[in-house]
């Protein structure tokens, strides 16, 4: 339910509505715009008397939620959200942000060395996995806490903010302590408890879409982040399972760039693309990076390693540092070209949705 | 890696190999057959010197793992595993087991009333959700601990073992305390930390296949249960996302019965089918229940409610108690018919795999 | 559009409505029930003045089509259609019909030899491909016309009706001349011109669902057969592309048995399952055959070869003749068991659809 | 099989090998490079004695085909193929080509009026459907021959080459007579007889990938075009069925841009993207058009209509003429930006395939 307050509603009336909501065991998320205040009601709506709320003083209307998500939609938050991380601004009209680094943190020396290279190539944020989600119990599962410390120290020494994955609820506190952005991986997109735990830290959340989720489902789970009073959300497209599966010798996943303009239109949050996991092949990272930026992505997450033949995980998709520089330069030019054209990114959102 | 010991190996030699494995930071799972002892090595195999192990006294051979799963395969555990839960035996040549009850536990009265009805219709195990995985933060999320207590009490009063889902690592201890079988839901199939936490309780695990997982991936995650010294596994097929998705007005998921004979051949564990979630439609539950048993399923998980129009979740797929009785009777006859035919279930596994 | 005539409408009034429809460039398909005559309007409905038709004498109502198919639905043809082929009755309450034989016709001797074996194992109809749809131009494409002649002669000599595929419009006339049932293969499910050409021969059509089609789409294309005045339709489920594709070492396709009860409920036509192509593995044919019959299939299409190591196509999925006998015997018993139970197949259709 | 001739082989030796191939009932396709002549063997290879061919005079080697396609691969045709249509060059290093027009030809006036508008907006080729593939028999199926004549006349009057679909083998001759490029639609990608009939006309073929085809399968069917001595192939990505299907309110299909760089690397043929059908939504056409060009597409196929609310098919995805101009201008700038960067399109192909 969304409760729309009258423009003339007083603070006391607003508080009364919030009290009513909370006394029914639900939560209230207040969104105050220039002209209007809307209260998002979070939780099982059957517990709240809809008609009663409608009649409370100061209430203009109460609207039942028809779509599975509401708090993440542009009708609730109309303007672009810009997420700021230690001086880096992501989203809105800001130029592309590059989050780069090794798949796994293997040592301080390794993550610092690669971090330096990606920084020189134009990256703004350092990525590296400490808690690795892996299919096989027989594979390398990440360095854990030690990996977090190495990543944190390398980021500090280089002056780069960091992002790393919290794989389990047990990791959240540690990741929140050491990293600047908490990543929720694709396999955990349906893990509502982990999402909510991460959201409650207040830290920015890089929230990856599952390879098996429709955009609707994806946004329904993103809804849980806002429902926990956290709007620092980076949405991330990282590839869906293509029809008929493993496109060997082609690609394991299909980076679904259609999601980029759809997400930009539906939600106010920055949208990031991950062409490394989204394709699984180093040679596809350059063209799909360019395509992601052209489609409107606010940033890219790219795996980089200077010795890909030696890595403990995902070597086949890691870019070499010198390749990263070429991608960053070209993508920045594409961004500029489109921004200065007669139909810049913002017109993708402004125009009618073509569905009528 | 699997280390195959010589038939003549001594206990001391075995212990020495185990010590070697554990001192490398890995775990050893010992499987002793009539003629041969095999040690399953669990963890990142790069940390163990393969050639050194091969040369240790008492070792016949050390074999690198070529498939993503090994501990759950019939080459590691050749004979059917029968899971026993408070007097109910599931798997092997035992007749079908029915796990029935409401989607969500709503009150003691409700779960006891429905429990009594399903028991009279032939069910052996009582199911009911306390921690519900839900797409929307705006839906009913289950009664939590109170739901566990109601389910436990109803099961005790009726003399039925119980099964319920642990949605998060934080739930595992409570679910293990109150229920006889811990369910890992389809959305958590990729949640390795939850799976391992549940496995470590030693309780039987009903492990549902994700709607987005290949059988290979599914078994790779089941591998984590055996790797935590727990062989009480019930595999559960509950529907995959069909091509082109929502088969409206047809089915949301497609119960993938091909998985039943594939899982029975590949692994020794009991295989259960869930036609309620697997189809999402009450009218498809009877024919797909029959089909699951005919395909070789050792049991069925079926949602039943006597007032489906009133339920807080998934009413459209819940069967009525009198319908359950018809299904149980017919399925038992089908089981008997096939068991007594010239080509009983066991011949599905005995025959060549037809892949040459 | 469906035009529902009044019970009191005269033949002249009916003819007048048909004339009106045909003069607008559309076709009229008349369905006369005990109490009511309905005219199905076929073609682009925008060319017909809806309101005018409603006002014509004898017309009770004119209803716009809301679903993509109508002529194949039970609301248009309420009673089960039984397709009769040279003494073999398929559909309704008839026991299962088995259509068996080699993937490809390779010689008269081969198809006669295997035909004799499948007949002795209980098969009713002889199958064999003459025009083979193949992915690679470098594979065997079938014997063509000569294959048709061999199949026809073997069927005649053994007293078995025959079924074979028409791959192209150019094949239709020849196949209609030589075979008793024209098969439209899964890859041609979207080939509207081929479907209509085959339908116009008036021969029974075995119409396979594409591995990539929703049930809705499938029925929309089946609609074209009835639209061409042919109701001798055998619907055939033969496997969909599973999520994530090639389930190696599992299955290439997933036989989607959910389609069997859905199709039986939605349409009056016999439903056949093809576990050979639907799984691609010989060892899965027995369990999935049993499951298909238990789900309500009216028949099975099974590839059989006595020398599978020598065949020119699809050897890995061909059953041996002695295996066929076991399947036929068990499936016949399963059919009998369910037919004689308190909830026979017909109750799957009679009960509410559970969607409310 | 590919037969690689020695550099010193004589014309007579080459002819002898061709004779040997053809006398075995197969076809020979000769590809002469600067230094080497390779003969592609087309048809069922089992009919040719491999070892015998290897020993023939002038033969350097005979190689069995390991992949399902060979004649369309860069190992067979290393250099980019540029397809020329009445003065328009598509592929290689040529700037993007735009193929635009209405979904269906409805009248001469309509196709000429829209054709003029798209030409002024920068389009090079006029598209319009005369034989429409439609799911429902109750929808508009196109004007047929009359539509072809209108399209042909409009193209002639405007000086634009034309492209239109041949839906059935029966259409091929007519389409070849009236249009400059024959389109094979996505639903006919598996229709081998239609593909071969179209190829034999020698006309350029715009060959659309099925929404249900892996890239491997797609190229296997493209192989049939070269096997019929036609190398004028335009490959076209037009969207795959996304997981979980209808992404409502998102997109019906997912334009799979990963296919663009994969196809450019694997084959020498021009690659075109169709963002109109690939997304089904007008508002997604601009961002996905930009993304397609950035990914390396040689051209775009875009539906345009000046009165989308009136069209007989697919109005929701048709762009307005003034929108087309914006897309063309921006895409041309993106092409120029990338071509002049340090890592132009050609470097996508030149670099290692990243799969080691």
Mean pLDDT, all residues of chain A: 89
- What is the CATH T-level topology of the largest domain in chain A? TIM Barrel
Rg from Cα of chain A: 21 Å
* Terminal Cα span of chain A: 26 Å
Oligomer: homotetramer
By helix and strand content of chain A, what is the structural category?
alpha/beta
Q: Please, how many domains of chain A?
A: 2
User: Strands of the biggest beta sheet of chain A: in what spatial order?
Assistant: 7-8-9-10-11-12-13-14
The most extensive interface between chains reads: A-D, 68 and 67 residues
Q: What percent of the residues of chain A sit in helical stretches (DSSP H or I)?
A: 25-40%
Order of helices and strands of chain A: EHEEHEEEEHEHEHEHEHEHEHHEHH
Looking at CATH, the homologous superfamily of the largest domain in chain A is Aldolase class I
For the secondary structure, the number of strands of chain A is: 14
Largest sheet of chain A: 8 strands, parallel, barrel
Q: Any guess at the CATH architecture of the largest domain in chain A? A: Alpha-Beta Barrel
What's the arrangement of secondary structure elements?
Four copies of one chain form a homotetramer.
Chain A: E1 2-5, H1 11-23, E2 27-32, E3 37-42, H2 50-54, E4 59-63, E5 83-85, E6 88-90, E7 97-101, H3 108-120, E8 125-127, H4 145-158, E9 162-165, H5 169-178, E10 181-184, H6 192-200, E11 205-208, H7 215-227, E12 233-237, H8 259-266, E13 271-273, H9 275-279, H10 285-295, E14 299-303, H11 321-339, H12 345-350
Parallel strand pairs in A: 7-8, 7-14, 8-9, 9-10, 10-11, 11-12, 12-13, 13-14
Antiparallel strand pairs in A: 1-3, 1-4, 2-3, 5-6
Helix pairs in contact in A: 3-4, 3-11, 5-6, 6-7, 10-11
């Amino acid at each position: 339910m969304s409760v729309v307050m009258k423009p003339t509603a007083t603070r006391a009336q607003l508080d009364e509505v919030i009290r009513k909501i909370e006394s029914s065991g639900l939560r209230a998320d207040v969104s105050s715009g220039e002209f209007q205040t809307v209260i998002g009601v979070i939780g099982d709506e059957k517990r709240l008397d809809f008609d009663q709320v409608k009649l409370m003083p100061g209430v203009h209307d109460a609207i039942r939620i028809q779509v599975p998500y509401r708090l993440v939609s542009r009708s609730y938050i109309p303007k672009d959200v810009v997420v700021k991380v230690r001086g880096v601004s992501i989203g809105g009209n800001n130029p592309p942000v590059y989050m780069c680094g090794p798949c796994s943190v293997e040592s301080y020396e390794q993550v610092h060395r690669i971090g330096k290279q990606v920084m020189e190539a134009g990256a703004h944020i350092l990525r590296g996995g400490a808690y690795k989600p892996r299919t096989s119990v027989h594979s390398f599962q990440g360095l854990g806490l030690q990996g977090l410390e190495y990543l944190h120290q390398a980021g500090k020494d280089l002056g780069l903010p960091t992002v790393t994955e919290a794989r389990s609820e047990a990791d959240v506190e540690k990741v929140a302590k050491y990293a600047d952005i908490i990543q929720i991986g694709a396999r955990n997109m349906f893990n509502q408890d982990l999402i909510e735990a991460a959201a409650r830290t207040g830290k920015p959340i890089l929230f990856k879409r599952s390879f098996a989720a429709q955009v609707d489902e994806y946004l329904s789970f993103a809804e849980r982040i806002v429902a926990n009073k956290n709007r620092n959300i980076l949405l991330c497209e990282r590839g869906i399972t293509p029809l008929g599966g493993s496109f060997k010798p082609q690609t394991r996943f299909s980076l679904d760039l259609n999601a980029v303009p759809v997400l930009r239109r539906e939600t106010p949050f920055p949208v990031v693309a991950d062409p490394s996991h989204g394709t699984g092949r180093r040679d596809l990272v350059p063209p799909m990076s360019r395509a992601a930026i052209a489609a409107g992505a606010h940033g890219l997450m790219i795996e980089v390693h200077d010795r890909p033949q030696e890595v403990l995980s995902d070597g086949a998709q890691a870019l070499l540092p010198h390749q990263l520089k070429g991608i960053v330069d070209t993508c920045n030019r594409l961004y500029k070209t489109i921004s200065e054209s007669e139909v810049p990114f913002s017109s993708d959102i402004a125009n009618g949705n073509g569905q009528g």
